[in-house]
Specification:
The complex is a heterodimer of chains A (about 180) and B (about 550). With about 180 residues, chain A is mainly alpha-helical. Chain A contains 9 helices and no strands. In chain A, helix 3 (about 35-50) runs antiparallel to helix 4 (about 55-65). Chain A is elongated and about 100 Å long. The termini of chain A are far apart. Chain B is an all-alpha fold and about 550 residues long. Chain B is about 75% helix and about 0% strand. The longest helix of chain B is centred in the C-terminal third of the chain and has 38 residues, at about 445-485. Residues about 1-10 of chain B have low confidence and may be disordered. Classes of the chains: A mainly alpha (about 180), B mainly alpha (about 550). At the A-B interface, helix 5 and helix 6 of A face helix 1, helix 2, helix 4, helix 6 and helix 12 of B.
């Protein structure tokens, strides 16, 4: 049986770069800002060098130059086609399908499962709190400062927040 | 259960400060020599929850013997960083270490789909289906439910059909008789893959399998639009046309998407110089949208490129009417819409001027002048267009406005002369006298000099024409005199004609003499000198005939 005929794509001559305009050459919406211009320009340069697009490097650089000069950009805007409508529907779809910003990006959330280490007991020697308490010698409070015992009492009664505790820096503890 | 939300939150929420504190404690422990894998794992999680992915990865890498969960965490970090190839490698290692983990297998499947590795994903699916199938001797896990299994089995069928190619008829009942919830889940998952080639391919298969499903149709239509945009970004206009054309007649999708598709088709057609098709598509978009300025601009441009300036005219005007703050503009360029309108109007005025369609050009510059009422350059341009369009009253009014804005501009005196209609030699003589007066008033003023020279330059051919006419008249009289017998010649009439001709030649000679000091180029000077000599000879001839 004869092999089915493959459709032949005839590439018709496209417009000269001045009529194509810098926006189409860099794949930008007309509202693109400087960062987007820079990013798309860099991307197109890579594509052109890898032969992924047929646009000459010279045209890519030309497009960037035009867009970076306000008056030339305005002239180009006035004379070039809009691929997206005013409501930006194409841009929204491109973003939704992960095409925006020049890179494909997944939009799905991976499943995350972490080890349950709630019962994990670190293999470190933890001193016994009762022994430590017994070893602490509390000095007598001098009678000349009668408010101190009351303040200490108040401090001892206040709730302790382990997360609020600021660990001393190594250099501080060394000094 | 997996979450297949359409959009993952872009900005990460602010991390709980406790994670920073925990990371600090754990980091100290690690610095102190602790190499316990759980400590490192906890440290990695503390970093991950603060979105410090590099630090988290560094902590995980310190684990001497990573287990499946450590590899899963590394894979998740790679996914967060959108490094899919690396994520795949890590997830494959995780899967090899733990073949019972549904989460690992599911993440690996979606990563491979996102990478466009349909074959690998297809091969991965049977294992995943086994994991969601409840075992009689064990309690069911949350993933082991019929819905999950149905979804995965249908995904296998979809991948199988897609790998066969679109030309193969769909016979799989799983696809043909898919339940609505499975279809919805499939669409959600496919839409979020983020790799438009894969998304488009799978949705095309799904659309072929389920031609009656509106949801599938709509999603496929959206994917086709994005794919076409991708092709256009690579300047592959013809391929984009081939992709979009079969969808152009689709009426079941929402109007916004239809408009976007027809607009893209119109752009591609015009970009491949098929402006007629472009115009047809843009006109179709017009019916679907509500006064979108961008469509009016596209339509006007397509007409313009098709050489139909007059057809473009109403669309341009509507475009400028609609060009307001609703049109998206670059955030870093303030007042862009107004600047764009001015630039567009000036551009069109230039186009019409080139074609000497002065009244259309006047219309656009008048509108531009409305945007910048006190801009002398615009007024100057408007003045010239009025003068060219022979609207001298308007031109004079504009010149008066211009005088107020540029009171000391010497050129404006010369502009006044543009408003003098040159009909005869007296007009030319008066004009040259004025030019001479203005040049004396503003000596060494290059702009005046340049403009004066330009005006004189225009006068010289007119002088040449008049000289030729007078010469023809004189030659005719001389011929008659030569061919008639002496008694038939009315000598008094001949002398009268010659006297009149001499007067005209003398006037012409005087004007040529006035031109002479006003021209600077050698060529022009020579032309004027030749003309003067020619006139002198004719004057002599007149005198000789007068006896």
């Amino acid at each position: 049986m004869a092999k089915a005929l493959e459709p032949i794509i005839l590439d018709l001559a496209s417009l000269p770069r001045e009529q194509l305009g810098p926006f189409l050459l860099l794949g930008l919406d007309k509202s693109a800002d400087k960062d987007q211009i820079e990013s798309n320009w860099a991307e197109r340069l890579k594509w052109a060098r890898k032969g992924l697009i047929k646009v000459p490097l010279e045209d890519i650089n030309w497009a960037k130059d035009v867009l970076n000069e306000r008056d030339r950009r305005l002239r180009a805007d006035a004379a070039s086609f809009n691929t997206d409508l005013t409501d930006g529907i194409l841009g929204q779809l491109s973003y939704r399908y992960g095409l925006a910003g020049n890179q494909t990006g997944r939009k799905w959330d991976p499943l995350d499962v972490e080890k349950d280490l709630a019962a994990y007991d670190p293999p470190a020697e933890v001193p016994d709190k009762y022994e430590i308490r017994a070893a602490v010698t509390v000095p007598d409070v001098p009678e000349a400062t009668p408010a101190v015992p009351a303040l200490l009492e108040q401090l001892a009664q206040s709730p302790l927040d382990p997360w609020g505790y600021e660990l001393p820096r190594p250099e501080q503890s060394a000094s | 259960m997996p979450r297949d939300d359409d959009n993952v939150a872009v900005a990460a929420p602010a991390a709980d400060p406790r994670y920073a504190a925990a990371a600090e404690v754990l980091e100290r422990a690690v610095q102190g020599g602790v190499s316990d894998p759980n400590v490192l794992y906890l440290l990695a999680l503390a970093y991950k929850r603060q979105n410090k992915f590099a630090d988290a990865r560094a902590a995980l890498r310190k684990i001497m013997k990573p287990d499946a969960n450590v590899m899963l965490q590394m894979g998740l970090l790679s996914l967060k960083e959108q490094n899919l190839a690396q994520a795949e490698g890590e997830l494959v290692r995780a899967r090899d270490m733990d073949k019972t983990s549904y989460e690992i297998a599911y993440n690996l499947l979606l990563t491979q789909l996102t990478l466009g590795k349909l074959n690998d994903a297809y091969n991965e699916l049977p294992r995943l289906i086994e994991l969601v199938t409840p075992k009689p001797d064990r309690p069911a896990t949350p993933a082991q439910n019929p819905a999950e299994r149905r979804f995965l089995v249908t995904l296998v069928a979809l991948l199988r059909q897609s790998l066969k190619g679109d030309e193969v008829l769909v016979t799989d009942n799983l696809l043909l008789e898919m339940a609505e919830d499975v279809e919805a889940r499939l669409l959600k998952v496919v839409k979020t893959l983020g790799q438009i080639d894969t998304v488009f391919r799978l949705l095309r298969t799904l659309a072929n399998s389920r031609p009656g499903s509106l949801a599938v149709r709509e999603t496929y239509y959206e994917a086709a639009l994005v794919k076409a945009k991708d092709l256009m970004d690579r300047c592959s206009w013809t391929e984009a046309i081939l992709l979009l054309r079969p969808l152009a007649a689709e009426k079941r999708v929402n109007r916004k998407n239809q408009a976007a598709l027809l607009n893209l088709l119109g752009c591609c057609a015009s970009l491949t110089q098929d402006h007629d098709s472009g115009i047809t598509h843009f006109n179709a978009v017009m019916k679907l949208t509500n006064d979108d300025p961008r469509i009016y601009q596209n339509l006007a441009l397509a007409h313009e490129l098709n050489g139909e300036l007059s057809e473009a005219d109403p669309h341009w005007n509507r475009y400028f009417d609609l060009l307001d703050d609703h049109v998206p503009t670059p955030a870093d360029l303030p007042d862009y819409s107004n600047l764009l309108a001015y630039e567009g109007l000036s551009r069109l005025a230039g186009k019409y001027s080139e074609k000497e369609k002065w009244s259309s050009a006047v219309g656009y510059v008048q509108r531009a002048s409305g945007l910048r009422p006190n801009d002398p350059d615009t007024l100057e341009r408007l003045f010239h267009l009025f003068a060219n369009a022979k609207r001298f009253k308007d031109a004079r009014r504009t010149l008066d406005q211009l005088r107020k804005l540029r009171p000391n501009d010497p050129q404006l005196d010369l502009y006044e002369l543009d408003l003098v209609e040159v009909k005869n030699l007296n007009d030319i003589e008066r004009m040259l006298t004025e030019i001479d007066r203005i040049m004396k008033r503003f000596p060494n003023e290059p702009r005046v000099e340049e403009r004066a020279v330009g005006m004189v330059h225009n006068v010289i051919p007119v002088l040449g024409n008049i000289c030729d006419k007078l010469t023809d008249e004189m030659t005719r009289v001389i011929d008659q005199v030569r061919h008639l017998p002496n008694y038939q010649i009315n000598w008094s009439a001949v002398r009268e004609v010659m006297r009149d001709l001499l007067k005209e030649f003398q006037k012409l000679r005087r004007i040529a003499g006035k031109c002479s000091p006003l021209v600077h180029s050698d060529d022009l000077r020579r032309t004027v000198r030749d003309l003067a000599e020619h006139i002198d000879k004719k004057m002599d001839a007149c005198r000789s005939m007068m006896g």
